[in-house]
Amino acid sequence: MKSNFIEIDGALINPDITEIKFSCDLGKCKGACCTMESEYGAPLKAPEIEKIEENLSVILEYLPKEHVKEIKQNGFWEMKFSQLMTKSINNKECVFVYYEGDIAKCGIEKAYFDEKIDFRKPISCHLFPIRISNHGGEVLRFEHYSECKPAIEKGIKQNISTAEFCKDALIRFFDKDWFEKLKSHLRNY
């Protein structure tokens, strides 16, 4: 690991997370994080699968018929290379995607914001563009995607760091005290 990583309570944070400006611009990216072409879906944790299963009947109400059919026939998750992940439609759209106009959005999160379920969405999705891996402790890094260029431009205009943009997700994953420690590494907070 680089020596310039920030260490907070055993977690290593790449300084890109505190330095790169970021604020999603759905009008420009069209929800690309939910529709990137890949044979891999969003990483899941076993308790998240349980929460989604508990709420699946409600979540299905928000999804396109093709996605509902796929989930009912083949499920919504799979294991690849010892990693739990969501399934996708045609190696592109997450099975939980629905559209508002031409913008891909999350059916799980829509049900949450409509106050029909108490689970927002998988933490890997909530933290995006931050990715966490475990190498004897959590390692947080900024995931670079060309589709997120508009988010970087908007973040620069709004002067919002990736850490600030992901504040709620970071508090959810760690806790408020942890985020307070991270704040000391943020410029202009």
Number of helices, counting only DSSP H or I runs of 4 residues or more = 10
Cα shape: globular
Tell me the Rg in angstroms. Answer: 17 Å
The secondary-structure element order is EEHHHHEEEEEEHHEEHHHH
Count of distinct structural domains:
2
Could you tell me the strand content as a percent range? 15-25%
> How many DSSP-defined strands?
10
Q: What does the model show?
A:
This protein has 189 residues and is α+β, with helices and mostly antiparallel strands. The chain folds into two domains: 1-22 and 129-189, no CATH class; 31-119, no CATH class. The chain contains ten helices and ten strands. The chain has helices spanning 16-19, 26-29, 46-60, 65-74, 107-113, 123-127, 149-158, 162-165, 167-173, 176-183, and strands at 6-8, 11-13, 77-80, 83-86, 88-89, 93-94, 97-100, 103-106, 130-134, 138-142. The strands form four sheets. It has a four-stranded mixed β-sheet, covered by helices on one side. Strands 3-4 form a two-stranded antiparallel sheet. A two-stranded antiparallel ribbon has the order 5-6. α3 packs across α5 and α9 (167-173) crosses α10 (176-183). It is globular. The mean pLDDT is 93.
Task: Give a short overview.
The protein has 189 residues and is α+β, with helices and mostly antiparallel strands. It contains 10 helices and 10 strands.
Characteristics of this structure?
189 residues, alpha+beta, 2 domains, four-stranded mixed sheet, two-stranded antiparallel ribbon, 10 helices, 39% helix, 19% strand, globular
